[in-house]
Design goal:
about 425 residues, alpha/beta, FAD/NAD(P)-binding domain, 2 domains, 12 helices, about 30% helix, binds flavin-adenine dinucleotide
């Protein structure tokens, strides 16, 4: 039987006091001031997702740049920053990736303090499961690469894993065996929209103008230099321009006449109704032909996702076959969850690069920069990307951490092939 609503409320608040607060705005202040576009900025950042906001924040905080605007065509949090499954980790094989993502994970560890906003970093551990001896060899290779770089990684055999994650109860029937796994204990989850709101709030407090409902539709240039962006709210002059538009990166390439090695693909996710605490870690695994990852949210829902849809699209429409595939794989791994209802199912747009690693570089003009190609793994990259991209824009030089993320690698062949730097690292 459901408890009466009054018992669900924390004792400090009655329904009436919450309503009064809502109406009086006494407790519900906007997190950042609403801005209107000014005529001219030192830096215009296009895209109010995680990467755009973090870049603007670091430009203001670390480099003292005063006149900065973030232009967002919808509202803050509407894009992938508010659609992802919140997993953070640095368990990559290639040095260019693992050092960068480790920098990001370290920044996530202190982000609540830095932004003075609780982003709910939860180091609950990330487990990459192996269903076969071959997979164990691949995971061992990745774990060794990480440990040589000073990044925490633990290879666990079946017994160790069962102790670490009792939810993988060995007595339950499973189609594929669990052989072991690679565990990164500092990995985990971070509340995604808190990251967007926290950066927006902190950037605005440093004087950054956050301008929603302002789509950039073109670029004005003179003598090989960009001078202004054209927007749905009129032209805005800028000394430097950063495009951080995630799933729309290809559009920007087309706008600037530069073909980019990027395709937009959909990634879907879903969440179940809330259940009691069951899954204390993040599980990532390959089940038959499908790859799945899941974690339990603080509200109790199991958040799950699968692989890309496999064809380019901007539709953001979740498809039933993916839901079915993910649910089947989830139940096959954790038979305990069979029968739990799916509450919501959604999709986001990912700018997939051809080698799966990101792009932070100049784009065609000396004073235009691209921050994109985050594929399906860019949430975990936000703190490091913001700091590094801001340094590139402010100083004109790419810090070592992002030198490998240049655009020219596709011409020279120095690609960073880690198959998406996403939730499904290749089993090398
Ligand atoms: C279902 C799903 C699950 C995921 N799970 C994870 C995960 O667990 N861990 C992880 O690390 N990553 C994950 N990702 C990937 C991650 O969400 C993205 O890589 C990352 O959020 C992209 O960067 P962003 O936050 O800046 O993007 P966005 O939030 O998409 O920001 C880009 C913004 O640019 C705006 N924009 C676009 N064009 C214009 C224009 N012309 N003018 C003005 N504004 C414009 C858009 O409206 C958007 O708000 C997942 C993605 C999806 C879809």
């Amino acid at each position: 039987m459901r408890p009466p609503a009054s018992r669900l409320l924390a004792p400090r608040y009655s329904a009436l006091s919450l309503l009064r607060a809502r109406l009086s705005r006494e407790y519900w202040q906007p997190l950042w001031r609403r801005s209107t576009p000014q005529e001219h900025y030192d830096v215009v950042v296009v895209g109010g997702g995680g990467h755009g906001l973090a870049t603007a924040y670091h430009l203001a905080r670390d480099h003292g740049i005063k006149r900065i605007a973030v232009l967002e065509k919808k509202v803050i949090g509407y894009g992938n920053v508010g659609r992802n499954t919140t997993i953070v980790r640095s368990n990559y094989l290639l040095p260019e990736n693992h050092y960068f993502y480790e920098d990001s994970l370290r920044r996530y560890e202190t982000l609540s303090h830095d932004l003075n906003y609780n982003v709910m970093y939860s180091p609950r551990g990330v487990v990459d499961l192996a269903n076969s001896d071959d997979e164990m060899v691949g995971l061992a290779r990745r774990g060794n690469a990480m440990r040589l770089a000073g990044i925490d990684a633990e290879l666990m055999d079946r017994q160790g894993l069962m102790k670490y994650a009792p939810v993988l109860d060995p007595t339950l029937p499973r189609r594929y065996p669990i052989v072991g796994g690679l565990v990164q204990k500092r990995g985990g989850t971070v509340r995604h929209d808190a990251v967007a709101w926290g950066y927006a709030r902190a950037a605005a407090a440093l004087g950054v103008d956050i301008i929603e409902h302002c789509e950039v539709t073109g670029l004005q240039t003179t003598a090989g230099i960009a001078t202004a962006v054209e927007t749905t709210r009129g032209p805005i002059k800028a000394d430097r321009i950063v495009f951080a538009v995630a799933g729309h990166t290809g559009h920007i390439g087309a706008m600037l006449g530069v073909p980019l090695p990027v395709e937009t693909h959909l990634l879907q996710a879903m969440v179940t109704e809330p259940i009691k605490p069951l899954l204390h870690t993040v599980l990532i695994y390959m089940y038959g032909h499908s790859e799945v990852y899941m974690a339990q949210s603080d509200r109790g829902g199991l958040v799950m996702g699968g692989t890309l849809d496999g064809f380019p699209s901007f539709a953001r429409e979740p498809l039933w076959h993916r839901l079915e595939e993910v649910v089947q794989s989830a139940v096959a791994m954790l038979p305990q969850v069979a029968g739990i209802k799916i509450l919501r199912h959604w999709a986001g747009t990912n700018d997939q690069t051809m080698d799966g690693s990101p792009l932070i570089d100049r784009l065609r003009y000396e004073n235009v920069f691209l921050n994109g190609g985050w594929c399906y793994g860019g949430f975990k990259a936000i703190p490091a990307s913001g700091a590094a991209c801001a340094r590139l824009v402010a100083s004109g030089r790419a810090p070592d951490l992002i030198k490998g993320f240049n655009l020219s690698r596709f011409a020279t062949g120095h690609v960073l092939d880690e198959k998406g730097a996403g939730p499904f690292p290749v089993r090398q």
